[in-house]
Amino acid sequence: MALKFPDTPDFTGPLYAPSRFEGVVRDLEVMGTVPAELNGRFVQVSPDPIYPPMLGDDIFFNGDGAVTSFHFSGGHVDIQRRYVETERLTRQRAARRSLHGLYRNPFTDDPSVKGLNRSTANTNIVPFNGMLLALKEDSLPYAMNPATLDTIGEWDFGGQIGNAPFTAHPKFDPENGNLLAIGYEARGLATRDIVYYEFSADGKKLHEIWIEAPYASSVHDFAVTPNYVIIPVPPLTSDRDRMEKGGRHFEWQADLEFQYGVMRRDGDGSDIRWFTGPGCFQAHVLNAYEEDNAVHIDMPSADGNVFFFFPEADGSAPAPETLHFHLARWTFDLQSNSNIAVHTNLLDLPCEFPRCDPRVSGLPYRHAVMLGCDMSLYAMDRLGPPPWQFFNMLAHFDVATGKYEAWSGGDAECFQEPTFVPRSPDAPEGDGFVLALLNHLETRTTELVILEALDLAKGPIARVKLPFRLRMSLHGNWLPEATQAA
Predict the structure, then answer these.
(1) 420 and 434 Cβ atoms separated by less than 8 Å
(2) Which pTM value belongs to this model?
(3) Strands 151-154 and 445-452
(4) Alpha-carbon span 91 to 110, nearest angstrom
(5) Residue 62 phi/psi, 5° resolution?
(6) What does the angle CA 3 – CA 16 – CA 409 come to, to the nearest 5 degrees?
(7) Comparing C-alpha atoms, which of 368, 456, 467, 473 is closest to residue 414?
(8) Which residues pair with 275 in a beta bridge?
C-alpha cells in the first residue's frame, strides 16, 4: 500500500512535511568558525510521524519522536538522527501503518494496541545521570544512550515512581544537579492529581508531594526556586467523558481563570496556595525566583487561546493575528491575604521558547534569550501567510534594563527553539553562545546557527549547513562532553 500523508498544514510545506529519516553525516560544512568552547552535543527532538495518521489527519504534536544530535569536537560538527524506539513506534513498524487515533485519546486507537504505552517521546530531551531522557508528558521517560542514541527503554527511575506521567520540562537545581519534575493527570486520564518529585543527580528519589489542582488541565511547564514550586494551571481542560465519546483530550474554557499553585519544596502539599489571574494562554517558563516575601514567575503570554486545534466546546478559536503576545511576570505575595496573581508586562513582543542561563535557574537573573516575531521583516508578498508557530527573530532580553536586541535570519526564514550554552562553567551569567536551527522557507533547507549570546545583533559567528531539511522540532538541550556516557 502506498504511503500518502494528508495535504493539510500539519503535514505539508517546508516546516511540517515529515522528514522520516535516520542516519549519520560526519563533518558538516561550516561557514565561519565554531567556538573552541563548544565541546559536546546539542540534542533536540521533533514530532516526526513515520506513517500517515490512522484517522486521516492529525495535529503536529502527535508525531513520533525523532532525536537529532549535533556533536561538536575540535571545531568539527557531526550530525546523527534516530527515532526513539517506543512501544508505539515498534508496533507501528510491525503493522506498517499508524495504529493510533486522536492526540492523547486512547479510546480512538486501533483495538490491537489497547493498553499499550502511547508515548511518542517527542517533546523534550534532557541529559540525566549518564543518559538522555526523551520526554512526553503523558508517560514515563524513555532513556537513550547519549553517544549512540540507542534506546535503552522506558525509565521509571529504578521502580521509584511507578507508571506515572512525567513532565516534558524537568528542572535542574543549579546548586547540586538534582532533577525536579511534576506529573499531571497523575492518577489517570483527566484526573486533577499532580505529583512533584525531586531526584538526586545519581537518580535517587528524595522527595514526593501529591496535590489536587482546581481542575484537570494541561500543566505543560512549571517552575522551582530554592524553597518553592510554582505550578501554572491554564484553562485548557481535559474531560474523560468527552474522550470516551471520541472527542479531544483538551478544550479551551475561556470562562475559567488561570490558576497558579505555590507550595514549599520541603512540605507535603498541605501548604499550597492557589493564586488566580485572567484566563490567558501560557506554555513555557523563562525563569522564577524569590524576592523578600514574594515569588515571581516569568512566562511568555497571550490574551487568548493560541492552540486553535484545542478550541472551545463550540469549535471556536481566535485567529492568531488577533491575539496580543508579551513576556509577562506574575508575582505571588506570600505574606498577603490576597490570592490575586499580580501581573507585570516585561516586554511587549510576540515571543516564545524562552531560555535563561541554566546556572541561575530558579534564582534572580538578568539575561534571557527567546524567539520573537516581527511580521514587517517577512516577505508576505512572495510567501503568503506564514505557517503556524512562526518566529523570525532571535532575541536577547536584559531583565534588569528592559532592553532587547534581536537578529533576523532573513525575510523568508524562521527559527526553531534556541539553546543557551555558557562559555565556561565559571563565565559570568549570560556569557556564552546561542544555538538555533534556522529554516529557509523558499529553499526548504535547514542550518544550525551559532551566535554570541550578548551580541545577537551582529549575527552568526558560525553557520553549520545541513544536507537535508529538518522538520520543525520542539525542545532541546546542551550536553557538555564531560557529562556523556560512552
Answers:
(1) yes
(2) 0.97
(3) unpaired
(4) 11
(5) -100, 15
(6) 150
(7) 473
(8) 260
Which residues does residue 184 pair with via DSSP β-bridges, in sequence order? 194
The residues with which 413 forms a beta bridge, in sequence order, are 440
Q: How far is 390 from 393, CA to CA, in rounded Å?
A: 10
Secondary structure in 3-state letters for 34-48: CCCCCCEEEEEEEEC
Residue 427, C-alpha cell as written in the block? 563565565
DSSP string of 30-94, one letter each residue: EEE---TT--EEEEEEEE--SS--TTS---GGGSPEEEEEEEEETTEEEEEEEE---HHHHHHHH
Q: Which residue has the cell 496580543?
A: 324
Half-sphere exposure of 444 (CA within 13 A, CB side): 7
- Check: CB of residue 43 under 8 Å from CB of residue 473: no
DSSP codes of every residue in 285-319: --EEEEETTEEEEEEEEESS---TTS--TTS----
Number of other residues whose CB lies within 10 A of the CB of residue 143: 22
Length of the chain: 486
For the chain (486 residues), the mean pLDDT of every run of 10, in chain order, is 88 96 97 97 98 97 98 97 98 97 98 95 98 98 98 97 96 98 98 98 98 98 98 98 98 96 98 95 97 97 96 94 94 97 96 98 98 96 93 97 96 98 98 98 97 97 96 97 57
- Report residue 151: phi and psi, to 5°: -80, 125
CA distance 320 to 398: 27
Distance, CA of 357 to CA of 303 (rounded, Å): 27
Domain residue extents for the chain: 1-155
